Every structure is written in structure tokens, then in C-alpha cells.
Amino acid sequence: MSVIEVSELRKSYGGRAVVDGVSFSVQEGEIFGILGPNGAGKTTTVECVEGLRVPDAGRIRVTGLDPVADHERVARVLGAQLQQSELQAKLTVREALELYASFYPRPANWRPLAERLGLTDKLATRFGKLSGGQKQRLFIALALVGDPRVVVLDELTTGLDPRARRDTWQLIEDVRAAGVTVLLVTHFMEEAQRLCDRIAVIDKGRIAALDTPEGLIRRSAGATVISFTPSAPLDEHDLNALPEVASVAYKDGRVTLSGTDATVNAVITLLARHHVTAHQLRVSDATLDDAFLDLTEAAA
């Protein structure tokens, strides 16, 4: 069942198309990611989903409701953590959580949320005295305090230290396990690869690819990376002629090839044929970073 449906969404500013025909759907219980370079149209897209911006064209439905025409009803089922948010500087963390909880007929218990996000010892602290990371954690709590059916998280872990980031990832996985659908905008590839069931890559206002993280990685020009330092020089023509090689690079006497599993076997055979030893041989799979760069560079 689709909880979010976006069809041919378009939004322009000053005659420039920021979102240009974006379509996707998000299934119930899914963590759906949106990736893209700065200025690609990611935040505008999710702000239209949230009803914060009115599309120029296209159709959006959140649990069957129009985010603009049915804004109050959508607000009861959708929680949002925006890319840029502020609260009144003198409001304490406790007051903010209690205030937001009062907006909903059946809010979540904010105390466990505050504990999970490391805010328990900051409940009496005023918003203006919080660090950037603490503010970010508070906004995540506020997005979840209404016990939403759908939550939109824009740059979820910006400003968080590595431990807080991983704790937050676990919280989001727990939220999804409880039946909440998550729409996640991020520029952290590790975050997207760990959390997302599917990812839409947006570039220049259009969807460049939509697939699972594994599917996007398989699209990478070189899904497997082989690097080593040869004990003797190798002929560049021989390396480029290996099966399914996508690229060959040399740096400081080290050779790095990208290709497939077939390339790995061919490299080993080539080295044996020439009686060359591969020092510090490394074989690794491509990452979402590699796939993202391939997709966005191809669209450039």
C-alpha cells in the first residue's frame, strides 16, 4: 500500500525549474531515501509533500490526502524534521516537548524519546543554550512526539557526532519496526545505505535513478574495486584488456582497477602468467558513494 504518492511534481522559482516532473511512491512501513547534490530539488520536493509549498503542477497524496487542501488532516498523520528550524530561545526542552505533544490527540510518550536522543539531562535547558547537535536531536524528538504514521526527516543527522548519529539510526530503525513510514533526505551515503529500503537519486530536479541501495551499487561502472602494488611493472594495455574492466588508475606505484568479479579472476591470472606478485592486494565492493557519483556525473 502506498502511503506517499508523488506524480509529475513540478516547482519553479523565478522561471527556473527546481523540481521538474518528479514521480515516486513510498510503501507503508518503508524507509525511502532521497539523495542528490546540493540544489538538486530534494528539500523542495519534501516540502511539497509536507504541504509547506504549493506545487506548480503534479499530484501528491499522503495517506490518500492532499497536503495542501487537507493540510490539517495531513498534519495529524505526518511528523517532520525540517532542514532548518528554530524555536523561541527561552523555551526549555521540556516545554517544547510538552507543547508539541499537546498538538496531537494521541501523542507518544516524549520521555523515552528524550532519553533515546540524549536529552534527559537537558530538559530544563533553554533552546537558545543548546548546541547545534542538541537542537538537531530535539527536532527529531519533536517530529516523532505526535506518534505519526509518516515521518519526514530532512538531513537527519547533520551536526551529530558519530556515536549520536549511530544511536539515531537505531532509533529510526526502531520507529520503522513500530510501523511508521519514513521519508529520509540525506547526503550521508553510509546513512542511506544502512537505513533505506529504496532510494531516489534526484539531480537537476529530476529522478536520475530509483532502486534499492544494492541495485544502485550494481549500476556503478565498477561494482568491484581491486588495488595492489605489483612487484614488477605491468603493461597498461594488458590491464585495460582484462574482462569487464571499467577503469584503471596508477598512483605511487599502486594499481587500482574497477570492474566485476570476472575482473578479479582475470587479474590473478595475469599476475601469475607474468610471475608478478601483488603486494597489499585489496578487493572491495563498490559503495553507494561510487554509485551516486556515477549517476550524478552521468547526468551532468
From TrEMBL:
SMART domains: AAA. Residues 4-229 form the ABC transporter domain. This is ABC transporter ATP-binding protein. Gene3D superfamilies: P-loop containing nucleotide triphosphate hydrolases. The keyword Transport applies. It is a peripheral membrane protein. Its main location: membrane. One of its GO terms (molecular function) is ATP binding.
